[in-house]
Design brief:
mainly alpha; 6 strands
Length: about 475
Amino acid sequence: MDAASRRRAASALNRLGLGARDGELAQLGDAPGWALAQTRRPAAELGVFDGLPDSLGYLRKEARLAQERRAFVRREAGRPVPVGKDGKPVNPLLRLYVQTFGADLRREASARWHLAARTGTPFAERLVRFWSNHFAVSVDKGPARLYAAPMEREAIRPHVHGRFFDMLLAVEQHPAMLRYLDQAQSVGPDSVLAERADRRLARRADGRPARRLGLNENLAREIMELHTLGVGARYTQRDVTQFARALTGWSLPFPRELERGGVERAFRFRPFAHEPGPVTVLGKVYDQPGEDQARAILADFAVHPATAQHLAAELATHLVSDVPPADLVRHMAQAYLAAGGLLPALYAALLEHPATWAAEARKFRTPQDLLYAGLRAGGIDPGDRPQPWEGLLMRLGQPTFMPRSPAGYTDIAGDWIAPDALWKRVQAAEALAERIPRTGLDPRALAAAVLGPQLRTGTGLALRRAEAPEQALALLLACPEFQWRV
């Protein structure tokens, strides 16, 4: 392998992938071809999701838990609050929640760590996680807590290699997004449901204020601003409101419907909550009935030039540099539009452009990227307890599925480089180094194997001078070359 091919191979594994494993760099060969092949087939799942509940299963468990909680509250009314060994009050309702969902949540987290460490299709896996962050759901909002991980495997993974519209629709109809952005509470002001509620309110004689039903624009706004057109597109507040009207009725099964049985989907369209009549969005009139109205708007958004530009810029920023070349973004957007919104065309346009493989292309590893790369470089088995890894991410500032904003986690180096953050990375490197198997290990050979031509002379010298293998491994994982996806 000549020097240029070796540099591209290192970039493919460390910048486009999740980090090189020992031996991968020497075997890679055609780096663009390696990455392109992964845009044509689903990301490997390695059976890690087998047996996990789907979103409908989680909704059913929630409905049963609500019944158990009501029964518990009735049964325990008037009794003293239990106290733990530390003398502090124990929340028995929280205990019920943990008993119901704790094992599932641990398995959801563990599955993602195993994929990050073991997958043989790391570029495809990176694409999954890019789109999952693009359609961000933050689990610090309680009603969405159970559904962020299922959304990734149900709405993102199946569509990463297909049409963007299919992924977009699956995401916007998923319980995670419907709950996170409060869409389930959105009711058309002139819908049958709103009129009935108004009549009930009018009959009230107790004088208490009542919450009226009406539009919630959160989902409509974030679809337009973050998921499709982008913040710079030329749309107005009226467009957002009109789109929100079209989205009314997009909801979830009620607990009583789940209890009765016969529910087959975690999405439910409610005609009585839908705002009747046509809407006008971006100058186009949509007069489709019911659920089809918002679907038609999403279909147009998916192939809008502003969406093509927005998606191309985000992906190029994630994979190439914090300020990607305008020519690269334009090339990707044109390819996406020419293909009618097929995502493989977007990926192929990025991979065929010389800017993707230029020597100056680089990205600073986010905390998640750093831990993924450390697991892969060290051949570390994440095990069945995700808590240590999740704890490391919490300390590094990027807990899983918790960006605290619909915009997702930032992808810009300046947002992750600070003295305190860099010191925590050194500590994380030490923690990772302790878990790397020692059998037959040569830290200097490992550094050359995973960093390739990016390994600097000074780092190699520091590794040779290390007093113990543990120190050498920590130096490798903390060195500047390892902190960057180059």
